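User: Quick one: structure for sequence A, then sequence B.

Assistant: Sequence A:
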Amino acid sequence: MSSLNLIIQGKPLAMDVLAELAVEAGSPAIEPLSKTAWRFLDAKESSKEWVSQACRELECDWAYVPAGLTLSHFGLWMTDMDSTLIQIECIDEIAGMLGLKDKVAAITERSMAGELDFSQSLRERVALLAGLKETTLKVVYEKKVKLNPGAKELIAACQAKGVKIGLISGGFTYFTNRLKQELGLDYAIANTLEVVNGRLTGMVKGDIIDAQAKADWLLKLRGELGLRPDQVFATGDGANDLKMLAAAGVGIAYHAKPVVRHQAHVALSYSGLDGVINLFAD
């Protein structure tokens, strides 16, 4: 059985705190990865419950990672867009242009928490956008879309290691295609809003990108790239990402809903997306 390293990250920690963590984790040595991240070598997984409680109290992220597992091991990163790669839920911001943000955001929240059927809730929300000028989407993209902390760093690290990047979203191609071009991503998959005479019809064209579609696309791209299951990692925050995270070698919940944090392989709740780099640091 290969040894495990414990990665703890998210905020500066005092030396005495780090020393206590090392003792309780059974780790003989600590490697600093940054000012807010450390690798505890050869940690004992039997200490997981104690580490989990301690990190919850410290408000830090933790993960046990096989020793020697680095970013170079992977060939594909699949990531959700809304509230994962970017800070907003695009559909909520679009609805805000019609004065419907609160109404749509409430549906989005329940959908991401797994309380509503995603496809049905998406059609319900998109229907409320009927009549909106397509040019409004440009305003949302330019004024509202901002990357989450650490996104640029993780993208750059993946590109430097030759890891392909797939952006997949239950949101809309208007946004994924622009992010793909702007950030130099390899793939972009999302739903297409129907537009007639320059206005949204309130309909989505084609099949909905739901939880199963996300997992299917991960498997499809993995196969096309000739990768093993363990050579793919994925990031997401909502119930619509669960099947994709489960299909990945490492599924990472990023500032996610409780249902996702509890089922993912790893949860990052305090770190930025660059926390992934620390998980798989050389």
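Sequence B:
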Amino acid sequence: MDLSLASGQEDSLLLLLPATSVLPPLLAALLLVVGLLWLSPGGPAWALSLCRRPPPGPPGVVTALSSPVAHRVIAALSRSVQGGAALLSFSVGLTRVVVSSQPDTAREILVNPAFGDRPVKDSARQLLFHRAMGFAPSGDAHWRALRRLGAAHLFGPRGVAASAPQRASIGESMLGDVASLMARDGVVSPRRFLHAASLNHVMAVVFGKRYDDFASQEGAAVEEMVNEGYDLLGMFNWADHLPFLKWLDLQGVRRRCDRLVRKVEEYVGVIIQERRAKRAAWRHC
């Protein structure tokens, strides 16, 4: 009994001695800081910001945006937090996110210049050849002028009037396809026809090429590239919110973007060569 008491006293005295290693105190302090950031309202991204009074929100990192039904998950989350229906804040990695479930608050967000800039996605930067004009800061005069010039060229009165015959032809072709399919099957899925008509109009306006049949080899290749681009731009990528994951490419977004960029460059290169050949032939005539 005496020996056991003596050993117990020695163990208790060892706890009072100063630590000889520097690692445990630093590790404990790091864990404490991470815990405080994680448990703060709105999550770590809002805790690291300069916002003194962030909107109400849950602690931790929310993974709802990676869900196929993200809108439903976020709606349920806003109802579960007091005051979250008007404005809810949460963290997705190191990205601060706010969500509004009320029309008045959403209207204020849409007209507020603080929300004018769109965060640049890694896939957008690659697919738009590292220019990302649609994601450029609103204060950048160069990109703002280019956006205004492109909008005036494509959607100005003269440009809209010039493409009117193309739109009419594409609409008539779509209506004919719908009528024939309705007469044959009695059921029509409008998504396929609207997608083909929209893609055909964009290709006619931008590249001067029209595909009446996307089942052809070239038309199918174009449609595949467009669908792949939409999928990559709309895909939730954790590398956009955790920068240290960007070079790991765990979701394969960079590899898919590289393959798609090579296909687009090859396709556009062929169109450029065709245009140059036509211009040279026209000059010789």
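DSSP finds twelve helices and two strands in the chain. Residues 41-116 form one domain.

User: Thanks, that's what I needed.
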